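User: I'm curious what two different proteins look like when written out as structure tokens. Can you demonstrate?

Assistant: Sure. I'll show them one after the other, since each token string lines up with its own sequence. Here's the first protein:
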Amino acid sequence: MSSFVIAAIAMLAALVPLGVVLCRAEVMSAVVAYEAIGSVAVLVLLLLAEGFRRPGEFELAILLAVLLLGGGLVFVRFLERWR
């Protein structure tokens, strides 16, 4: 197992507290947690692509990074209506 895969596993552990904040916090804290989860997910995908030596998988991480902004705006709009 390469060090990149070990780092990806360690970063996945960081998603647990962010998920708790996302579910239980106020609206603005939930939005920040959502954006942080997205950033960590992009980094995990990049680390896994490098760890397994599959350069074609970098495209998925780049696409996710680009779509995070629009997803965040939709999430805020949804929470604004729900509140």
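Here's a second, unrelated protein for contrast:
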Amino acid sequence: MNTAETLIKNLDSSVDIDIVRKYREGDIRHCYADISKIQKKLGFKPRSKFEEGISDLVEWVKRQKAVDQFEKSQRELKEKKLTK
């Protein structure tokens, strides 16, 4: 299960994943965590599993007041020629 699917499940949502293939110049489009160095050098051990962290995030998000500014942000990115 990927991050989007995990979020959708935790939010009890039925939204479809829509990958639009638009991005800003300089965006990091693929990123994977490798914590082996911090584990080795500092003895770091995650306190919770990914799924638990997502659950905590979802509970926090539900308490926030959302303001949808997606269209505004897309317009600004286009005006500044930052999207492809």
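A detail about the second structure: The chain is about 45% helix and 0% strand.
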